[in-house]
Amino acid sequence: MKQSKNKILLVDDDEDILEILEYNLVKEGFNVHIAKNGKLAIEEAKSIMPDLIVLDVMMPGIDGVETCEQLRSIYNLRNTLIVFFSARNEMYTQLAGFDAGADDYITKPIKPKLIVAKIKALLRRQSIENFEEVSFDINGLTINRDEYSVIAEGTKIILPKKEFELLALLASSPNKIFKRKEILNKVWKDNEVSSRTVDVHITKLRKKIGESHLKTMTGVGYKFETV
User: Which of the residues 2, 104, 117, 157 could staple to 83 if both were Cys, CB 3.0 to 4.6 A apart?
Assistant: First the structure.
């Protein structure tokens, strides 16, 4: 059996799906844990600190979107990848998932090989990104990739992963106009995500770091303005 140090938390109220996913992931050497609802998922995630969570949307009690939002509010889980796995394939449901902080969204029916491949790709990409040490000062902000943090006017702000990656991308090339499609490709790495997602995240960032840094280029995209 292949060996892996990566911990995967599977969250679904369907025992058959859990069994199939667990079997295929264990076969690939992953350390697999299971939770059957959102409340248990949050407790288990705090306990084991998983590298990646596979999360169903429709669950009794706390649904997947709310569970994801709560997970994203936990500082120690800020680098944990979250993948939604759901029969709900409407655009608004997927958008809600990404807005809640998901890194990917896979629709049912179950395709074990595809899910395993997606998980491997996400973990591999994150491993590469983790070697990039980025800490720099720009326009009165201190941006630290290692901590997913920004210091604005002397106050340290911890940002959710996608908000931070969006800010870091724009700040990496000051005054360059990034088109929405380019932002989606580089931050969300998915052409199926609505451009509205970018707008929502920009609005959230402005509330946290101030209005002056991020400028809207109407009909085009956004830029980090320093002049």
Answer: 104
Residue 1, burial from CB neighbour count under 10 angstroms (0-12, 13-18, 19+): exposed
Length of the chain equals 227
Listed residue (102, 96, 119) closest to 194, CA to CA: 96
Per-residue pLDDT at 131 exceeds 50: no
Question: How many Å apart are CA 145 and CA 168, to the nearest integer?
Answer: 8
Q: For 57-82, write each residue's pLDDT tens digit.
A: 999 889 999 999 999 988 888 889 99
Residue 166's φ and ψ, nearest 5 degrees, are -65, -45
> CA–CA distance from 219 to each of 66, 109, 137, 139, 222 (Å)?
32, 37, 29, 25, 10
Mean pLDDT taken over the chain: 87
Q: Both tokens of residue 70?
A: 């709560």
Structural domains of the chain in order of their starting residue, each with its CATH number? 7-129 (3.40.50.2300), 135-224 (1.10.10.10)
What is the biggest distance separating any 2 CA atoms in the chain, rounded to whole angstroms? 57
Amino acid at 220: V
Q: Which helix (H) or strand (E) holds 94?
A: helix 91-100
Q: At what angle do helices 64-72 and 91-100 cross, to 10 degrees?
A: 20
CA angle 86, 55, 184 (to 5 degrees): 75
For residues 3-21, one letter each, b for 16 or more C-beta atoms within 10 angstroms of the residue's C-beta and e for the rest, the string is ebebbbbbbbebeebbeeb
